[in-house]
Amino acid sequence: MPHHPPRILIYSRTTAYRHESIPYGVDAFRELGAEHGFAVEATEDPAVFADSGDSGDSGLDRYAAVVFLSTSGEVFTPEGRERFAAYCEGGGGFMGVHAAACTEYDWPYYAELLGARFTRHPEPQPGTVTVEDSGHPAMKHLGGAATWSLTDEWYDFAASPRGAVRVIASADESSYEGGGMGEDHPLVWCHERDGGRVFYTALGHAPEAYADPEFRAHLLGGLIWTARLD
User: What is the rounded average pLDDT of the residues 49-71?
Assistant: First the structure.
């Protein structure tokens, strides 16, 4: 499926709230690609999903992974939904960052694919992430540490995806004010379906996050796993 060097598609269309961090995130992925040998294409045009392609040179099949970078609202055309689902069901990689969980509320397939739906968050503030799977590439930058302290927008979800996904890290609600999920509060998770891989991180709200070497290593590790770049 993917070409060499591998190609990654960054999609950041918003039809609801728009995070000011989006261009910083695009730049971070481009720089990671230049450093680690993968090509990055970025778009907010939903037509990219309607392009069926006639070979490996066009269409979604040319991408090792599709990354939804703080997308919001309804971001597909009806045809785009079909093409995206076919890509994922055909073994394509899908990575969601932050507000990707605030996307396509009217499409049940997307909720199942991603793993959970965003509901609310308190004000951005410092807090602690509890590492549950230190061996996952998205957490290896922590060198086996059990926690990760950072400032972010701590998302709550309609229900915990635990049991349906592999939870990589969760929120310690005792470390910040306003958490609403209690003791079981996953923030980072992954799963495999139909031969493809899905990874999601709820982190990445602020522009400055994308300049943080630790957060960049987190994104890179998630992408390496999702796109099978290792």
Answer: 81
